[in-house]
Amino acid sequence: MNLMPIKGQHHVSSITANAKKNYEFYTQTLGMRLVKKTVNQDDTSVYHLFYADERGNPGTDLTFFEIPNAGNTYSGTDAITLTSLRVPSNNSLEFWKERFETEGIDHGDLERMNGRATIFFKDFEGQRLALVSDENNKGVSGGKPWAKSPIPEKYGILGLGPVLLTVSDLAPTTEIVSKVMGFRQVGKYTLDGHDVHVHETGEGGTGAELHIVERADLPPERPGRGSVHHVAFRVETEEELYKWAARLKELRIPNSGFVERYYFKSVYFREPNGILFELATDGPGFEGDEDFDHLGESLALPPYFENKRAAIEARLKPLNTKE
């Protein structure tokens, strides 16, 4: 079966217990744009918020499910333990370090991750994040920060950078990533005294890398608020996604089959250490039900949920995103 290479990261979805504070942090502190306020399609009683570049281009989305009763995250292995976000230059990180200090954001010093200037930080729930410089990126291009962001465009977040997986057994995850998904192993670096193995796909670069570290010494992570639910990878078209679903079936890898998400189409499966992966199409995108100037301002529902809008809205705590 002739498959086009996976193009890179599509989105990362995490858990928050407080949609209002989450909205304030990611739009006002980080300057990302809320491009869609919708609901978790598997549980319409909770919000699903999408933050991204100006129009939610694939590879720029950081999304959150609101689970109000989510407990603390107890970090460990067999989990996605770092989400990085791309910024235009090394100089951008000086701006961000000063901003984090002014805003009282938990952050580290400027350092390097896989040769790139980086600053590690956490949001108000302990979400593990990093900003990485795109200054020398020669791979997948980033997005475009929203013009109305509180962050100057020359420092603004361009999209997703490398995602770090921490696993208890490196070999089977590496086999799935390389032999099934087609990632290339391109090197390694050391983080907190442990080797991190770098894999890339498609054009490569900051927006197409998956980093994997083996930590058999840690207990399995207990997820809660501030943890990552899944990572999604970019597939060009719906036709291509069907090919991937067929390939997973042929290899007898349990998967969801084709799933309609309206803003994109998806297939879900778990790698051998239990981390949830998604393959998602680049389109159709977020402007099918809202125009560009008003993305994220109102509760958007896919057409197949519109007849339940009154009941869905009645269960949601109001969240003003027009400010």
The number of distinct β-strands equals 16
User: What oligomeric state do these chains adopt?
Assistant: single chain
Task: Calculate Rg over CA atoms.
Answer: 19 Å
Kindly report the average pLDDT value: 97
Helix content: 10-25%
The name of the CATH topology is: 2,3-Dihydroxybiphenyl 1,2-Dioxygenase, domain 1
Helix tally equals: 5
Strand order of the largest sheet: 2-3-4-1-13-16-15-14
Structural class: alpha+beta
DSSP strand content:
25-35%
CATH architecture: Roll
* Sequence of secondary-structure elements: EHEEEEHEEEEHEEEEHEEEH
Instruction: Supply the CATH class.
Output: Alpha Beta
Describe this structure in words.
- The protein has 323 residues and is of the alpha+beta class.
- The chain has a single domain, classed as 2,3-Dihydroxybiphenyl 1,2-Dioxygenase, domain 1, CATH 3.10.180.
- 17% of the residues lie in helices and 35% in strands.
- The strands form two sheets. Strands 2-3-4-1-13-16-15-14 form an eight-stranded mixed sheet. Strands 6-7-8-5-9-12-11-10 form an eight-stranded mixed sheet.
- A hairpin with a 5-residue loop joins strand 15 and strand 16.
- The longest helix has 14 residues.
- The chain starts with 8 loop residues before the first strand and ends in an 8-residue tail after the last helix.
SSE topology:
Blueprint: E1 9-16, H1 19-29, E2 33-40, E3 43-52, E4 61-66, E5 79-87, H2 90-103, E6 111-113, E7 116-122, E8 128-133, E9 159-167, H3 170-180, E10 184-191, E11 194-200, E12 209-214, E13 228-235, H4 238-250, E14 259-260, E15 264-270, E16 276-284, H5 309-315
Parallel strand pairs: 1-4, 5-8, 9-12, 13-16
Antiparallel strand pairs: 1-13, 2-3, 3-4, 5-9, 6-7, 7-8, 10-11, 11-12, 14-15, 15-16
